[in-house]
Amino acid sequence: MRGNQLLDIKIKYKVPNNLYSCHTAIVEGYVIEGHVPADTVRRLLKEKPAVVGLAVPGMPIGSPGMEGPNPQPYEVLTFDKDGRTAVYAKR
To answer: Total structural domains in the chain?
Structure first.
C-alpha cells in the first residue's frame, strides 16, 4: 500500500492527527492505529464501546513489535468521531 493510500484510510476513518502511527488496521469496523496489543483489541471487540477505535501513538519500546530493553509504560487510547480521546488501557 502506498503512503497516500494509508493516509486516505486514516482520514476516511477520522483518526486524529496526533494519534497517527505507522500501522492502521480495520477490525470489525474499529480502527486499530499503531502498536496496539492483541489482548486489548480482543477486549475492544468483546466490550464494543461506542468509539471509532484504539491507538498507541508513536512506537513505544515494549509495545508489540517494539520489544527491547527498558520497556516504556504507555497508554492505549480510544478515540471518537470528534477526535476526543480517553485512556482505555495502561501497559
So the answer is: 1
Note down the domain range covering 10: 3-90
CA distance linking residue 87 with residue 42, whole number of Å = 16
Cell digits for 76?
A: 492505549
CA–CA gap between residue 68 and residue 82 (Å, rounded) = 35
Q: Report residue 90 as a C-alpha cell.
A: 495502561
Query: Can you give the pLDDT of all 91 residues of the chain as single tens digits?
Result: 555 888 898 999 999 999 998 889 999 999 999 999 999 999 999 999 999 999 999 888 778 878 888 899 999 999 999 999 999 999 9
| Distance of alpha carbon 84 from alpha carbon 69, whole angstroms | 32
Name, in order, each residue with C-beta under 8 angstroms of 91's C-beta and a sequence gap of 6 or more. 37, 62, 63, 73, 74, 75, 76
Which grid coordinates are listed for 34?
Answer: 499503531
